[in-house]
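ARCHIVE ENTRY
Sequence with per-residue tokens
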Amino acid sequence: MNNPIFLIALPILFLVLQVPLTLVLLKRLSTARDRATPLLPLESSLEATARLAPKVSIVIPTLNEIERLPTCLEGLRDQAVREIIIVDSRSQDGTPEYVQKLQKDFPIPLKIVTDDPLPEGWVGRPWALHNGFLQSDPASEWILGIDADTLPQKGLVASFVQQAETDNFDIVSLSPKFILKTAGEQWLQPALLITLIFRFGATGDRTQFTEDRVMANGQCFLSKRSKLVELDGYELAKSSFCDDVTLARAAAQKGAKVGFLDGAALMQVRMYTSMVETWREWGRSLDLKDASTPSQTFADCLLLTAVQGLPLPILIILSLLNSQKYLQDSLPISILFWLNAFLVFIRCLLVLGIRASYTEVGFWFWLSPLADPFAVIRIWISAFTKPKSWRGRAYN
């Protein structure tokens, strides 16, 4: 018996979608081996020299961060830093009081600033960073924005600044090493991370970065003071829920040299504490729509659907249909099966490829490709919705 017409037409439709986007993905991944070398700590003598003449003001935005800020500040205690500015947005959990207790004995000048009420049109994080920049020491050549959930490792600042100066970056940020503890996190978070790699290439792969596609990470975001002055601080990213990428792309389009490097040896981060929190908090900004045009966002979602969301379901469905002898020999079906088997194979290889981006992993990390369809659905949801609250703040 011949195959029903829809079993011929559907595979052709899927192939029309998947084949060209698979070629895009392969081109994007093909240059990963040429990416910039991951940053490492400097030799002790160079680190000591950097501490003698620090060039960096660190700005840490906080809103009820008493659980995470202590480990962040502990990691900054011996860094080559001129000052640390905590910009607090009226925390209610004792964050300001904690910082005030530390000020007297902290080895680096530690300031706490309470930002003004949020102006209309601003999102909380860029507003806090903007205020920190305005309050920073004019003698600092660099402004380093760091999130409270970051765990700086020994030598982070000195190595980061040296690399920025060597490469003559105006703005540069680092990707971290992630700390995942629960099974749900280890299953979902890597799948969400892969959505970034499929859209923008590997960290440090400068071949993939164009002015409107450059990536950034606000957890460790270094800017030349002179460039921030030129950009009027964080004004260009004031309404963005992905202010790091928005500012980096806006700066690149104005002629700034922007970089994104592998900092896994210099910083770790414990972003969220559960799968539900990862889905809710990280998932709603990963679409990067605030830093992209609507057509770019749609194209990215389409790419993810074709090469990450569909392959596993298609492979399973075709295998089940074939086992029940619903399918006769069909060239389109055969091509579709092997194309999606190839895409699943690539995805499984990438589990090994991203292993170095995590401190420790368990059983569920290796099963993270099974979360791919859900990760892609999360990006679609985020692309068509605007956050109504963020870190305890409500937005209209």
User: Anything to note?
Assistant: Residues 5-33+295-385 form one domain. The chain has two domains: 5-33+295-385, 34-190+201-279. The longest strand covers residues 56-62. The longest helix spans residues 5-30.
